[in-house]
Design a protein that fits this description.
The structure is a homodimer. Chain A has 12 helices and 19 strands. The first copy, chain A, is α/β, with parallel strands linked by helices. Chain A folds into 2 domains: 199 residues, Quinone Oxidoreductase, Chain A, domain 1; 135 residues, NAD(P)-binding Rossmann-like Domain (Rossmann fold, 3-Layer(aba) Sandwich), CATH 3.40.50.720. Chain A starts with a strand and ends with a strand. At the A-B interface, strand 15, strand 16, helix 10 and strand 17 of A face strand 15, strand 16, helix 10 and strand 17 of B.
Amino acid sequence: MRGAILHAPGDVRLEQRDDPTIIEPTDAVIRLAATCICGSDLWPYRGLEPLEQPILMGHEYVGIVEAVGADVRTLDVGDFVVGSFAISDNTCEICQAGYTGRCAHGSFVHGTIGTQSEYARIPLADGTLVATPGRPDDHLIPGLLAASDVLGTGWFAAVSAEVGPGKTVAVVGDGAVGLMGVLAAKQLGAERIIAMSRHPERQALARFYGATDIVEERGDDGVARVKEITNGLGAHSVIEAVGTQESMMQAIRSTRPGGHMGFVGVTHDTQLPGDELFFSQVHLVGGPASVRRFLPQLIDLICNGQIDPSHVFDLTLPLDQVAEGYRAMDERRAIKTLLTL
Amino acid sequence: MRGAILHAPGDVRLEQRDDPTIIEPTDAVIRLAATCICGSDLWPYRGLEPLEQPILMGHEYVGIVEAVGADVRTLDVGDFVVGSFAISDNTCEICQAGYTGRCAHGSFVHGTIGTQSEYARIPLADGTLVATPGRPDDHLIPGLLAASDVLGTGWFAAVSAEVGPGKTVAVVGDGAVGLMGVLAAKQLGAERIIAMSRHPERQALARFYGATDIVEERGDDGVARVKEITNGLGAHSVIEAVGTQESMMQAIRSTRPGGHMGFVGVTHDTQLPGDELFFSQVHLVGGPASVRRFLPQLIDLICNGQIDPSHVFDLTLPLDQVAEGYRAMDERRAIKTLLTL
């Protein structure tokens, strides 16, 4: 089969790889129906993460079960499944508490499995994959694919930030995850949703998904605008979806004392000053999203037509053109590239 | 009247100061019944906080109301009151959400009011002070004084760390606040309470207040011991009551993924690595404790004899000997010094 491999910064290639097979009795092998490129894939693509050897790219996926191991109980060959970028057993104490993104027996699809490919072996299949009710219509596939990471991650961030009715939410980051954070905030009943964005087309999409206010300023100026909108106090809930020092500080400073911040932008070289965190009294939690926890609910919402996250994909290419997909996102010509098979 | 003033590191003196009077209609003036020295007072005493000018020391207090301003509604002259180290109106949005330690109109007693003194003017008296039911017996006064900060702070840390039934709690720091964190964890129903301490007399007090396990190791070794005790996962809830880089990292690393950490040691020169916080998936919140929120409940528990926090005071001196009280704590001859008037 063919799969994407990153050899060096800027050098991603679709190459022949071994067809995956069942290794553990808890595995499933899936044939990809669609996959995509993540903002987090750009970190190694841009050389901002160390790359010691070529790595298998891609961690977002929907597909059809081709084979299951002897211990797989909830999935059958032929099922259409959505999976999380984090492998989880969904039975350990950590998963049962809701944190499937940090399963005690978990691992990550990125780098070692790589789902920008025709097939993939998914370990701990019962705990990682969720079957849709029947084979979904084609028009639902992009939305279901979004659930695999960006929607699930935005949703996790919103839940982590304790978004709810009556709350004012600020979203730092206008990439796909930030936009899905806006969608999640709207679904979770937020009263006011401030999208921090300076790109007109992303602002429009943020408004489409439920943003009530747009703040174009960044850093301290952005914080000052959020404070103006929130009676000087800051937002109740802040979603951070970038991962830089500036965006983290902007998010912390945009949160009111006692407020909650969910940070899901993969952080790189950030240092949070303890004294500021102390006096800010912001509740902070972040990390690899527990997508698996929300997948059943998200699949329902998508299949019932209640949400349509598919608009985060503004470029669709065949898997063959994966390299162009990376280039378009790197150059910010595209928010997110969907790859068809 | 006389009050303690810190002139330079190690140089605290009881001096004549002006008698406080009502300035704002929301003020009360109290006559101190007892006061004490806080671990956080040692930071400037040890020269670890910049001291640009002499400052008024003390922020823990119980006393009798001597005068009230025209707008004070809940207090009368003669009431015995317990107050928080944080001034709060208890009516703003932040206070109403429970975060009285960061009241939108708040300030701190430390440095400007100073309650290691005979009298004190307390601003926003209705929102800061709570009257006890009648005049408490003398033997209850040390416990009520503890509620003013160390008990309230330990309680806030435990609530912030989401301590509850069935949970395993680790407490980093065996000072008065850490010990009160142990007491709070016990009251809040924790199943297992790990006190991290290497001092036999503090270990004994931790056990008295409810610790089920003692870990003497610090740093990575201490983390490893907590993991051993918790099936490799880390504690559900961690209370941090020191405020150094080492203690903060020890606390974060002792918390399981998805677990909660409340940090109340006043942080000094700490930097928290964002990538570790990201992958740890620890819920983090800290800061000046919202003591006022818990005071009515804590006063009840103390007056009903359900808790006795007074054992954190292992040295009692008259206010005259405040300088010796600081020395004893600085040299770790005392956990906490109570000052009588």
